[in-house]
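Case study B.
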Amino acid sequence: MTKGIQIAIDGPAAAGKSTIARMTAEKLGYTYIDTGAMYRALTYCALEGHIDIYDDEALSRLLDELTIDLLPSPQGQLVKVDGTDVSDAIRSQEVTASVSAVAAQPEVRRRMAEQQRRLASSSGVVMDGRDIGTAVLPEAELKIFMTASVEERAERRYAENVRRGISSTMEELCEDIRRRDKADTEREASPLQQAADAVFIDTTSMSIGQVADTIIRHAEERMGQ
Ligand code: DC
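Model:
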């Protein structure tokens, strides 16, 4: 096979992007990059360092000082900051509540996008986020825009939280998803938007395997072209 293509997967919070992107990358032997984890890692470090999550300049400086590594492991993707494993810490309620503010800062986004482009340059890649097809990898050979109803997304997040031992209620999760949808779509700096050439997939009544298979079918079509 040749070098491999770039697959950009975008969509709202808790649409199952990470699980599906990881599965697709595994099946194709590609690198998987969860860009949300990068914003979460920066948010976690900002909270730990008592840095104002609305201060674009201070956050950008912090980002420059950090080394964020995304490493594949049998339990899923490990996220390390300066060598310390923060994979669980970045999923906390505190980080989830603050990450939209950090992700809305234009200079933070510009620097993140630069790092993400560098990570995507070496081989076949599946990258998931909010602005991958529109801003980070506008030349990606395959773009997917994936969504599901708010209730379905809350149910999936609830099941994931139970697995991770995080306590939450469906009401809280629906509210959090609505709030993040609003923040992600209404921010000025590269808001969540479907790229004009993206394939739209509503995953509400699809299994994870069905969605991954659909993406792989599209990827094989693109590779054949
Ligand atoms: O996918 P996630 O829930 O882990 O993403 C965390 C936050 O980061 C979410 O509020 C949206 C933001 N994000 C973004 O703005 N751009 C990306 N490429 C990825 C995530």
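The radius of gyration is 17 Å. The remaining cases will be described in the next quarterly update.
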